[in-house]
Amino acid sequence: MTALPFPLAPEPDDFMRERGRLLFAGPVDFVKGVVAMPGLPPADRIEICFAGRSNVGKSSLINALTGRKSLARASNTPGRTQEINFFALGDHRYMVDLPGYGYAEAPVATVMKWQALLKSYLQGRQTLRRAFVLIDSRHGVKAVDEEILTLLDRSAVTFQVVMTKMDKLSRPEREKNLDQVRAALAKHPAAFPEIVMTSSEKGDGVETLRAIIAGLE
Ligand SMILES: Nc1nc2c(ncn2[C@@H]2O[C@H](COP(=O)(O)OP(=O)(O)OP(=O)(O)O)[C@@H](O)[C@H]2O)c(=O)[nH]1
Ligand SMILES: [Mg+2]
């Protein structure tokens, strides 16, 4: 049997699991919230970021990874994260929580401002090692996601899809939506060829993602 393209990321081995655990058990400090490109901290270390539609679960995933309940603000109100929030993960990495895209309810001028900032950041950050693009397990890849994935292709930023809220779906529903995501990813040269399935609520996939991040240097 040939492997399906875009398989789920394998479970980490003990060594990588431990590296991931140690990285996230160590210091994680909020550095700053950035509202315009000149405010970005110096690009002096590797960076990973979490991008995705409003309410997909970016901030919740950062909290689950770090085991700190309210490090990144998470909420029921889409459009909650309104700045690019930088966290120092140990001494050698930045972890970045981005404002969501695709949220139509906020004032137009505000949305335009976040979107422009988000796009400039994704296109122009040299130290950005990988963008984790979160996709809601219930919804799959939407048109607004396509726009971001295409922008990442053009900027040659490798992105890896992380499916969120898997606890909200049955296994068959999950498989069906995963197939939709796989078909969408096949068109994107910048897509990293493994998908991570997560639930910030239940903890699924969190160790795997910690190990992946610890392995990026
Ligand atoms: N059941 C379940 N709910 C989740 C999960 N992850 C996030 N949520 C909920 O989804 C909502 C949005 O989560 P956030 O983490 O604030 O989403 P966000 O992507 O940071 O949103 P913005 O900052 O607005 O872009 C919250 O009510 C979370 O509790 C999950 O794994 N399972
Ligand atoms: Mg958020």
TrEMBL record:
Pfam families to which the protein is assigned, alphabetical: MMR_HSR1
Annotated keywords: Cell cycle, Cell division, GTP-binding, Magnesium, Metal-binding, Nucleotide-binding, Septation
Domain EngB-type G: 44-217
GO MF annotations, alphabetized: GTP binding; metal ion binding
GO terms (BP aspect): division septum assembly
PROSITE patterns xref list: G_ENGB
Named cofactor requirement(s): Mg(2+)
Entries under NCBIfam families matching the protein: GTPase_YsxC (TIGR03598)
Described purpose of this protein according to its UniProt entry: Necessary for normal cell division and for the maintenance of normal septation.
Family statement: Belongs to the TRAFAC class TrmE-Era-EngA-EngB-Septin-like GTPase superfamily. EngB GTPase family.
Name of the protein in question: Probable GTP-binding protein EngB
Gene that encodes the chain: engB
